[in-house]
Amino acid sequence: MVRIEDYGEFETAWCPGCGNFGILKAVKQALVRENVAPHEVVFVSGIGQAAKAPHYLNCNVFNGLHGRALAAATGIKLAKPSCRVIVESGDGCTYGEGGNHFLAAIRRNVDLTVLVHTNQVYGLTKGQASPTSDLGFVTKTQPDGVKVAPFNPIATAVALRAGFVARSFSGMQDHLTEMIVQAMNYPGFALVDILQPCVTFNKVNTFAWYKKRCQEVPPDHDPTDWQAAMRLAYEWQERIMIGVIFKCSRPVLTFPQHDGTPRPQALSESMQRYY
Amino acid sequence: MAVPYHAGKKRDRMTSDDFSILIGGEAGQGLVTAGTILAKALMRSGLGVLVTQSYESRIRGGHNTFAIRCAPRPVIAPRETVDLLLALTGDTVGIHQGQMTARGRMIVDTAHGAAESDSCVAVPFKELADKRMFTMAATGVAAALLGLERTLMGQTVNDVLGTKHPELTEANQKVLTDAYEWVGQNGFPKLGPPSARNRSRRMLMDGNEALAAGAISAGVRFCSYYPMTPGSSIMQAMITHAKHVGVMVEQAEDEIAAINMAIGASYAGAPSMVSTSGGGFALMVEGVSLAAMTETPVVVVVAQRPGPATGLPTRTEQADLEFVLHSGHGEFPRALFAPGDVEECFHLTRKAFELSEKYQGPMFVLTDQFLADSLRSAEPFDAANLQTVAPLIASADVPGPYKRYAITDAGVSPRLVPCETPHLVIADSDEHDEEGHLTEDLGIRVRMVDKRLRKGRGICGEVVRPGHTGDDSPDLLLVGWGSTKGSMEEAAAVLRGRGQSVGTLHFSQVWPLVGDLFVPQLEKAGQVVCIESNATAQFARLIRRETGFHISRRILRYDGLPITPEYILRELEALECT
User: Fold this and answer.
1) Hey, is the C-beta of B424 within 8 angstroms of any chain A C-beta?
2) Alpha carbons B285 and B283: distance in angstroms, whole number
């Protein structure tokens, strides 16, 4: 049996009180619940404070470039389908710098679990607006408030009919663990957008701000109902829906015919076309 | 500096035993298909063949050409003059008339107002075939005039076009028969080429196809790309083999994704390759740096075309040498190969994989549109007996704790694949410690930079020596790299035929430059001239930077067309070197 200690305890570069701690703990709990050993999983991340999370887990890590985690993870999963691949990065990395890869990864539907830390601000670069910052959000670099409309990751993922779309909050441990477990068990692209406070740079969207708004999706919500999911995806100012927003079944991209041992010796036959 | 392709006066053929065919027409007329059929049939008849394709960046219309030069010996370079012009449009004649040799012939549609003459075969295509089959009829007339056997031609048409649709196959064969009969009835004398001697089985393959085959023979398992001319046909070729040989090929959303996917796949143990052209490579550059920092093997193919920006999308140039050499922020070792012909495309791509897996980092193959699209007859590669690269992956029983970036004398660390052993494989784009975790320990930083750079010594020890032809201490030494190889060697041979002392030095690896391997030869030559398809003599300047040897005489071309032997001879005359 895998124990939580197997994933280690590390000194982190995060601020005391950061939402990242809650996410890290829930990730460990989910791995233990699913009995995944450290050497059986690859965590892939980009750049940012969230992207450091894999370094604080005793596991295989590919900590690549800002915005490009999904692309690297796609290559890892396609090349080695037996690896369990989990992408973990922030909202700036995944929805901003990596926006095109986010769209393509949903369309491609490789079997990836994608955990996005959404705190609506840039932490590592010290407080600029992020793609999810609300209109009017004041920062040092947006002193008149953000004028660029926020990116809605849930609505975008639902619009593209991502196979599994969920949202949770770093302050709700059990709920978050459950969402990560469900995402890990979904065969295909599975998104968990995780709301989290940034205690240093976001004085608006605080722990209390999220706590007050986060409500579990109503028990009668049918996550296979696309229109209902789209409606929930646009809930934001008054209340924010957490839970499984949308689910559907889609073919997963693999290379069954190309997989396994390469057969370079078959090249001679294949080259007959050139004679 | 650059002389337009067609500026030359009517010239006689440079050598007596070769024959040059040019097919001209609009995009969408089936010009490449017609050319490929003729080139393949000529090769099967025993001739050496070399194709030069010139096309515009459009799907229909414009004016494109497909030039086939053939001879009863290997053909190494294109030729500007034309012995047989196959004009698929009325404009073709006017555009290419100036290139015709004294005994050149044109095949022209009577509908374009052509009249029979010594130099013109006027064909009533309307009587020979349905309009959709005009190109096939023209191909048949050309084949008959060239003396290609009817059965050989019929077989080649079926092989190139396939025989899935029996009606179409039958229709093509009927048009061929009618074309042959028409030529026979009119009693035209057989044109060249001279009859052939080499009846051994050979392949007709372009640079990009050879490159893909080389990668497969090396053991490539994962390829990703975003389409960009002239790099795309590498992956097109790869896809035709993919299922058969077990290669994954994925079209990425952009070039950034392509290289990051390839690096991910390589981290997971699959030898990987990406291919692109200048603009696409510009997007990959951060990924190059990632491969270097995470010490992940990846082969990057850059098929050059003229820039800056979108430039001339379908033309040729060698202007990305400096760009590729300096691509990627930070300092790390690399190798750049520049194949000079189809055979080198195959073997140097293999070598790039070998180095990439051995030294765990990005290695480059630099080609260009001319070579990418240049179909050539080639001896079969012994694909069945070539070794695949052995990915340098340490055995599973590495004594713990496993350190992915263990500091070693050679700079190469034991490489494991994740999820295969109980060991954890940690890769980081940040500076990292031996385990792979990010660090800000500046002492480790220095040791890691030194470790990575030490791999450069090993790479230097495996450099491909520049190829030398001609006298050891020639009066004139021509220096070039990449696809100019054949033109340079043919120009030198012409001059030697005139009694001049001429040598050539061709670099098929342009980085690293190991001066001991070539500077003595430069010093022994009377005059040295560097030949490059760019405007700023990038390679000549690189040689000076690395060795101090200054090559002040340069022959440069940057009008988007390939350097030909005639171009070199004209420019040498202008430089008063001949």
Assistant:
1) yes
2) 6
Three-state secondary structure call for residue B527: strand
Q: What share of chain A is helix, strand, coil (3-state, %, to 5)?
A: 35, 15, 45
- Tell me: the pLDDT tens digits for B13-48? 445 689 999 999 999 999 999 999 999 999 999 999
Separation CA A4–CA A1 (nearest Å): 10
Interface test with A, best of B343, B398, B424 (most A CBs within 10 A): B424
Neighbouring residues of B396: CB distance < 8 A, sequence distance ≥ 6: B416, B420, B421, B423
Burial class (CB in 10 A: 0-12, 13-18, 19+), B344: buried
| pLDDT tens track for B437-486 | 999 999 999 999 999 999 999 999 999 999 999 999 999 999 999 999 99
Query: Does A260 contact B246 at a Cβ distance shorter than 8 Å?
Result: yes
Q: Give B-chain residues touching A39 at CB under 8 angstroms.
A: 418-419, 421-424
Quick one: average pLDDT of B520-549?
98
**Quick check: A196 pLDDT over 60?**
yes
Q: Measured between alpha carbons, how far is B535 from A187 in angstroms, rounded to an integer?
A: 54
Contacts of B393 (CB under 8 A, 6+ apart): B269, B415, B416, B417
Number of H helices, E strands in chain B: 18, 21
Taking contacts as CB-CB distances below 8 angstroms, the residues of chain B near A263 are 244-246
B572 token code pair: 């040498």
Of A59, A113, A60, the residue nearest A89 (C-alpha): A113
> Residue written as tokens 């992940």?
B296
A173: tokens are 């441990």
**DSSP single-letter state for residue A97:** I
Sign of CA dihedral B376, B379, B382, B388: negative
- ipTM exceeds 0.95, yes or no: yes
d(CA A195, CA A125): 19
Contact yes or no for A122/A97 (Cβ under 8 A): no
Pairwise CB contact (< 8 Å): A64 & B294: yes
Closest CA to A199 of A45, A2, A20: A20
- The answer to whether residues B264 and A71 touch, using CB atoms and an 8 Å cutoff, is yes
Please state which of the ranges A2-6, B153-157, B186-190, B279-283 shows the lowest mean pLDDT.
Answer: B186-190
